[in-house]
Amino acid sequence: MKLFDVYPLYPIEPVKGSGSWLWDEKGEKYLDLYGGHAVISIGHNHPHYNERITAQLTKLGFYSNAVQNSLQVALAEKLGKLSGYDDYQLFLCSSGAEANENALKLASFVTGKKKVIAMEKGFHGRTSGAVAATDNPNIVAPFNAGHEIVFVPMNDAEALEKAMDNEVAAIIIEGLQGVAGIYEPTAEYLASAKSLCESFGAKLILDEVQSGAGRTGHFFAHQSSGVTPDIITLAKGLGNGFPVGAVLIAPDIEPKHGMLGTTFGGNHLACAAALAVLEVIEQEKLMENAADLGEWLIEELGKVPAVKEVRGKGLMLAIELAQPVAELRKKLLFDYHIFTGSAGNKNTLRLLPSLAVTKAELTPFIKALKEALASV
């Protein structure tokens, strides 16, 4: 049997990690400024994270959601406290796509409707409903295309109001559009979406799968707007590499047995991993670090002559150039041993490092970027 070849792969195999660094099978060292798609939130191989998971594994690795699991209760309490949503309810699953799938399903359940308004250029995952709400026809199979989805330009309040009607179950918006190239919904736009949901009996879903877990300097990107959504989704950085997804649900949404379900979601190891991540974020003040370094990076990158625009917040940043960045990314990786990310906007380089990255680690990147730009 061979692998189903759906990924274009770099000829590099990381075999070891520590903090913001990776080593390949040849012993070559790389600076990781992409974190496996914003997953590595507290750094590779963090000792507290390793100890938490190892200790749990020696006790019990898994049992289903047919029994009580006090780790889920502890995780809900910790997540509520750190995020500021301690009055919300928590449903645990195993990925961001699964979190968004359950969020959309929940909104449909409680409103009795099925139409969804999503944002142009948005990305919510590759499962049935999540990919239908993703604005990329290339990854939507005919099987997924039967959902009632209306796409509108983000930050166009007039278009949103025009698309809204009594058949809409939910509006789904990323806290910060990641795959598209780091585009932010304005506070005014989120407030308008929330108001429309209240007027038409719909639910506002904030997809914080990539932008949550402290990445923007707030626990969730939308928290700088002052808008409170009905449902929030979270994954990626919550597990630091262990598959963890979460749906935060407003207290006025009533749960019913059988409404949602999962076999692996909220398992003992997943909870141990997520608890370790939240503990490290809090104890090491990583949200503050993300906010401070983000401001510094935006200022420093803005001084680079070839840089057209720097977008984002905290350690979720986009560097836009006047030309495609594919060759630049290759040069940074192969000549300077620095991992960076791409985006739907082909002229955009994405930075999604560990929230524990340091200024001393980022400074050589700025130097390498200037040199690489001069030669590409």
Automatic annotation (TrEMBL):
The keyword Transferase applies. CDD domains: OAT_like. Its cofactor is pyridoxal 5'-phosphate. GO terms for molecular function: identical protein binding; pyridoxal phosphate binding; transaminase activity. Keywords: Aminotransferase, Pyridoxal phosphate, Transferase. InterPro entries: Aminotrans_3, Aminotrans_3_PPA_site, Class-III_PLP-dep_AT, PyrdxlP-dep_Trfase, PyrdxlP-dep_Trfase_major, PyrdxlP-dep_Trfase_small. Coiled coil: none annotated. It comes from the Bacteria. The keyword RNA-binding does not apply. Belongs to the class-III pyridoxal-phosphate-dependent aminotransferase family. This is Acetylornithine aminotransferase. It comes from Roseivirga pacifica. The lineage of its organism: Bacteria, Pseudomonadati, Bacteroidota, Cytophagia, Cytophagales.
